[in-house]
Structure to design on (136 residues):
């Protein structure tokens, strides 16, 4: 019972580890001056009202007061490694571990049944009834 629970919980942990290591997302931040106005993950940030006014007054002021920052968190792209990516010592180590692990297991010997071809004699009479021996 405990072994099954540990096995399932370990499987869920490894699956979530693979999921979160490959997950990529962006974090967008909108600043109005030095003040953080909005933060959004997976969506676009909402612009403040000064952004629309700023476009209208673009001729008057040269320096914009609003700015957007985008932080990209990249996940792992490649999960599989090729055997050729390892150097010679690592390849020898992996090969020796694999070879020794495979040779740990021995085949199950065949069961020898000595009386496989033996057929029991045909009963002519029921001996238990004949001797009147009954289990009670």
């Amino acid at each position: 019972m405990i072994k099954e629970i540990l096995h399932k919980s370990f499987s869920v942990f490894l699956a979530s580890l693979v999921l979160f290591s490959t997950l990529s997302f962006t974090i967008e931040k909108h600043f109005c001056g030095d003040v953080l106005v909005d933060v959004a993950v997976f969506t676009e940030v909402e612009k403040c009202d000064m952004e629309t006014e700023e476009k209208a007054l673009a001729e008057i002021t040269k320096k914009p007061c609003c700015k957007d920052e985008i932080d990209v968190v990249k996940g792992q792209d490649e999960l599989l490694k090729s055997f050729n990516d390892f150097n010679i010592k690592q390849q020898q180590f992996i090969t020796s571990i694999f070879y020794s692990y495979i040779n740990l297991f021995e085949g199950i010997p065949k069961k020898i049944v000595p009386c496989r071809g033996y057929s029991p004699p045909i009963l002519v009479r029921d001996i238990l009834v004949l001797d009147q021996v009954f289990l009670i």
About this structure: The beta strands are 25-32, 35-41, 66-73. The longest helix spans residues 2-21. The radius of gyration is 38 Å. The mean pLDDT is 82.
